[in-house]
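In response to reviewer comment 3 from the previous cycle, which asked for concrete evidence that the modeling workflow produces usable outputs, we include below a single protein chain processed end to end. The sequence was submitted unchanged, and the resulting structure tokens are shown without manual editing.
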Amino acid sequence: MNIKPLIEIAQYEHFAAVLALNEAAIPAVNSISLTDLEQLAAQSCYFRVAIIEEKVLGFLLMLPPGASYKSLNYAWFSERYDDFAYVDRIVIDPAVVGKGIGRQFYNDAISVLAENHSRINCEVNIKPRNDASLAFHAALGFIEVGQRDTASGTKRVSLLSRVLK
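The workflow returned the following structure tokens.
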């Protein structure tokens, strides 16, 4: 059964909840500090939170081309695409995973970004394997455009892209 949270632009008052969700989701996402989150938020082309009864249940943060960001995966996409929105991270509270929030985030992002961006790019771990995220992104129309090893070969990611227009 899907739930319908309010999807709204992330505000500083949401950052503590965003950080708590992020840290609980490691290793699916990397750890970040408040300073890192502030810097990412300032550069984002899409940063929204899902809220039910004043509780943040998830977030999606995306970056445009040209961001000052040290991610090797972001750099990989930047070398190959001029126009994109990069999913830095999407995290959903485990209590509501599978309730449609991730799909609602992406649908909202597509409606917000389609006018100014031609595609959405992201990566999903395949070592360690994140089957749920791979299946989720495939169902949304993402296709693999590459793979790369990270973290000195201890991780491998599938680089995914979805055309918007």
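The CA atoms of residues 66 and 141 lie 25 Å apart. We consider this sufficient to address the reviewer's concern, and the full set will be provided in the supplementary archive.
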